[in-house]
Amino acid sequence: MKKFQISALQQRQFKAPVTVKLASDEVGKKGEMQYDTIHFVVRFRSVPGDEARKNLLRVEELRNQGNSLEEVLTESLNQSKSYVLGIEKHPEHPFPFLDGENDAESSPELIEQLLNVREIREAIEKTYGEARSGELLAKNAKK
């Protein structure tokens, strides 16, 4: 059985697979939209409860003060960057990101570039949210 340092549980890191569907530049034989699907793994850090509450309040505050959508999105992007630690190859799929001819290396720059792509950012945020609530909490409650 694995044991955990109590002081480290709030800052725990975990990995989760992410799947993203992107509209393709091709159209199907009958004129229907085609999609490309990419798979990768993200290494996250758990955001402690007090920090998560503060983050939510900050985004809500920006919205309520009439800040521009760009300012709200920038804050959301900064929050996402704070808990995305790395990008890795999915065990069953090729690494989907290139830097020239080679696979891109996980770095803060790559993370920022990926989070600036709306579909990727939303898929990462959804994966993080699901890992930190919903199904996981339900599974823990049943034990």
Observed structural traits:
143 residues, alpha+beta, three-stranded antiparallel beta sheet, two-stranded antiparallel sheet, 44% helix, globular
Structure description:
The mean pLDDT is 84. The strands form two sheets. A three-stranded antiparallel beta sheet has the order 1-2-3. A two-stranded antiparallel ribbon has the order 4-5. Helix 1 runs antiparallel to helix 2. The protein is globular, with a radius of gyration of 18 Å. It has 143 residues and is α+β, with helices and mostly antiparallel strands. It has a domain at 8-46 and 84-142. It has helices spanning 49-64, 69-83, 108-115, 118-132, 134-142; strands spanning 13-27, 33-45, 84-89, 98-99, 102-103.
Secondary structure: elements and pairs:
Blueprint (H helix, E strand, L loop, with lengths): L12 E15 L5 E13 L3 H16 L4 H15 E6 L8 E2 L2 E2 L4 H8 L2 H15 L1 H9 L1
Helix pairs in contact: 1-2, 4-5
General shape:
globular
- Widest sheet: strand ordering: 1-2-3
Structural class of the secondary structure composition? alpha+beta
Count the helices. How many?
5
Radius of gyration from CA coordinates: 18 Å
Please trace the helix and strand order, writing H or E for each element: EEHHEEEHHH
